[in-house]
Amino acid sequence: MIRLARSFALILFALLTAGTLLAQEPPPEPEPGSEPGIWIADASGELRPVPPVAATFLREEKDAGGELVLLIERFEGTVTAALSSGQLGVTRVRQALAQNGVPAQRVSSELAYVEPRYRPLILTGSRPFPERLGFDAAYLVKVRLAKGWDPGRLIDAAFGAGATRVLSLR
Prior knowledge:
Layout: H1 2-23, E1 39-41, E2 47-49, E3 64-76, H2 79-99, E4 107-118, E5 132-146, H3 151-160, E6 165-169
Antiparallel strand pairs: 1-2, 3-5, 3-6, 4-5
């Protein structure tokens, strides 16, 4: 009896809800430009919606095993010489990594910084400004590691080719 009463109540509720929804008026047409999204005005001034654009997201490769970040630091008398020496160091490190089985598309590099180097002043003497000795330039070399690679072997090869520091190994 209780089951029958519950079933009857559910059917009555469904009919009343459906009747209420059917009796409502359809919503009015939205004004141009009032709908969410991006709208642009054409040459005549009429607003038109911009169709949605599908975005493509880059996914990490399934065999990603981490990242190795190396630093190549160089000191020279001029900025140009420091940058050239740093770029040569990047080339040598890339070649050493390639000889150890790292594909070129897994290695990227970028300039980290260029800054002047000054002679340290122990006591402020007769010189009002410190003497500039030259410039330091540093490049980052990032290697996307694959599972199964030996990071120690890659670090040894990079240091042998001129890398000066390991900034991170994840």
